[in-house]
Amino acid sequence: MALVSAPDASGVRLTSGNGVTDWQGFAVAPYLSDYTSNNIGLDPSTLPDNVDLPKTNVEVYPTKGAVVKADFATRIGYQVLMTLTRVGGMGVVPFGATVSLLNNKERDDATSIVGDNGQVYMAGLPVKGELSVVWGKGVDKQCRVNFNLNGLKPTAQMPVIQLNGDCR
């Protein structure tokens, strides 16, 4: 059996069995096979709106009669759809640019890729922060975006905050 840990991800279903995480993000995955790989997954469609999982599956290898721990990293924060515009009338940030949250010590790998029309979706963002945007090697092919989500509240009907970001 495995103790599943997904901090602050309450009410998330396991992909196998009937397990659901409790209010702290813990669940039990029973009936694992001894001495072999067991895949434990969390159903991302059951995540709370403020929780993001970098990985939805973890492999564990229990010995006979053992209880193993399946740790899932969680990012707690806001979901944002941001349109990134380069200052100085340069248009939107190009398709394929990489966007990363700076100073993200507790937010494992908060990185995304710009899609059409300069739009990027990011999850698990803090209220305030800075994004690094890169689409090439030169200084003219990168910029930074400061964001502040104070006063912008997601709703049950619209859990993703939409805003514009100036890339400087």
From TrEMBL:
GO terms for molecular function: fimbrial usher porin activity. Pfam families: PapC_C (PF13953), Usher (PF00577). GO terms for biological process: pilus assembly. Signal peptide: none annotated. One of its GO terms (cellular component) is cell outer membrane. InterPro entries: Fimb_usher, FimD_plug_dom, PapC-like_C, PapC-like_C_sf. This is Putative fimbrial biogenesis outer membrane usher protein. It comes from Klebsiella pneumoniae. Residues 81-150 form the PapC-like C-terminal domain. The lineage of its organism: Bacteria, Pseudomonadati, Pseudomonadota, Gammaproteobacteria, Enterobacterales. PANTHER family: FIMBRIAL USHER DOMAIN-CONTAINING PROTEIN YDET-RELATED, OUTER MEMBRANE USHER PROTEIN.
